[in-house]
Amino acid sequence: MSSGLQRRKGGRGASGSQRGRDTENTLGEQQNTEIENEDHKIAYDPKDILNTEREQKTPLLTLMEEIILIGLKDKEGYLSFWNDNISYALRGTIILELALRGKIQMVNDPARRRFELPERLIECVDGSLTGETLLDEALKLIKNDPSNLSISNWIDLLSGETWNIMKINYQLKQVRERLSKGLVDKGVLKTERKNFLLFDMATHPINDPTAKRSVALRILNILTNRNFIIEYDEKYFPQTVSHKYLRSIALVCGCSAANVLENILMDLDFEVRDKAFVRADELLNQFGDYPFGRPQTSVGVGLNLSTEVQEEIEKEGVSELVLEVFAAVLNIFSKMDSIL
């Protein structure tokens, strides 16, 4: 009795052969593709290109590291034990660095102009990591805080100068030591242990003197030369860096607030040194307000600076909300003697 079903002759074999031919064709096409593309980059991560662009626009050393470098004794490798200002100034430069990197800015509220610059609120606008530990820690705190706080509040919190017990954990601890270790990782400093009678302490003498020389030269040029011309360093401060003039002003004002400016001015003649200190105060007063104040050149130094800064702002399209943060921190620096 027939079931009515018939087996197709060679059906299975034909399917297997067809699959075999399809596989061979596919492999052949892949091989041809590989041969055609062997000289080309097949895949890439867009983040790699973005990170490379950011690295070209940011210097190797942060503002905090540059201030630490100026404050350190070259051979001894430690900061002055009597410097009470440097900790507070370093927290201020953290805010400056984040603003110059486009991570934070003033809250865009027209009502903000009713308040003094240090009392205006800031917000995180770019929470992506910078690769610098201290900056990333501060940025994370600002990003995750449920309420927008003012610049003066944030500097107080990061410094531990606050009565708010709920936010005492916002304090950044061991900032100077961590910055020094960061400079060791970048090859600028080295680590040694020295005995101070009752205890041993890790010190960080200069390992690469060109780094400090580059920073000191930029400070001296802006404080002593009739016209400020930036001398670039391919490794530490290349020409591709953004906000070159704003960074130089922030560096000088940060060193002045941290009481380390004298370390590189002490070898100058008395009259030149005196003019340099006056010029540093002028920069604090001029750029500690926004819109930036009228050019102050009572000592005949840095006559071109205001023009260069204005051209830089227009060329790089620096936001007014970022410039307000910049001015607010310098405003706080100018009043630090009365704050501390």
Automatic annotation (TrEMBL):
Compositional bias ranges of the Basic residues kind: 1-11
Broad class of the protein's primary localization: Golgi
Q: Name one GO molecular function term.
A: phosphatidylinositol-4-phosphate binding
Q: Does the keyword Mitochondrion apply?
A: no
Q: Which domain of life is it from?
A: Eukaryota
Q: Does the keyword Membrane apply?
A: yes
- Chain intervals for the UniProt region annotation (Disordered): 1-49
List, as start-end ranges, the regions of compositional bias called Polar residues.
25-34
What is any one of the record's Gene Ontology cellular component terms?
Golgi membrane
Give the UniProt subcellular location, in the record's own words: Golgi apparatus membrane
Sequence similarity: Belongs to the GOLPH3/VPS74 family.
The name under which this protein is listed is Unnamed protein product
Organism annotation: Candida boidinii (Yeast)
